[in-house]
Amino acid sequence: MRSALFFFLLAGLKAVAGQTPIREFFITVAPSVVTVSQGEATSLTVTITCNTSSLVVAADCNAWPKFDLHLSDFPDGAHAETAASRIGANTISISAASQATVGSFPVQVTVVAGNTTQVQTFVLNVRQAASVASVPQETRPSAGVTFWEHHVLLAKSPEEFNRKANHLGRDSWELVSVITRQNLGNAEWIGFFKRPRRAQSQLAVETE
Description:
Strand order of the largest sheet: 1-3-6-5
CATH architecture of the largest domain: Sandwich
Helix content: 10-25%
CATH topology of the largest domain: Immunoglobulin-like
CATH class of the largest domain: Mainly Beta
Largest sheet: 4 strands, antiparallel
Number of domains: 2
Shape: flat
Distance between the termini: 81 Å
């Protein structure tokens, strides 16, 4: 009888030891697409929220003096000002030099504290400096010059991603890259698409 009781106690301890640690906090990143022109600056908000499903975990989270925040490599000429973060909304300043590389780039935001690491992804669009309006009419780019517009696709499974990507393809969207991430324990597929946009359409958007 004692042997059987010891066996069940041991099995219970192994089960507890094998459990995945409860996440102490979660993060959200807004907006999911950040656009900045060469020579200008903008901002991104990273919000840290304690996990309130457990009083012990929430207490540990609220006791942390700081959260370490890191961003993956930016394109040449782009820069982000980060510092130790706190619970709640944290504003990150993003700037682009006058010669910053133009394009669309997926950037990962990583926040670490205690035993928890949270990762979210946003798209950084670096645009060419909006100096077309100051150029004399005869030297402006011709109507045949194209600009790029971008689109982000989020899917919960490879099948859903493939179906949505095919739908975008029929509307001239081209897949640039795709990444996966974990969101609350569930896998997500994020695709970055682009398609050409006429120069006149681009100007109409920027001057509105």
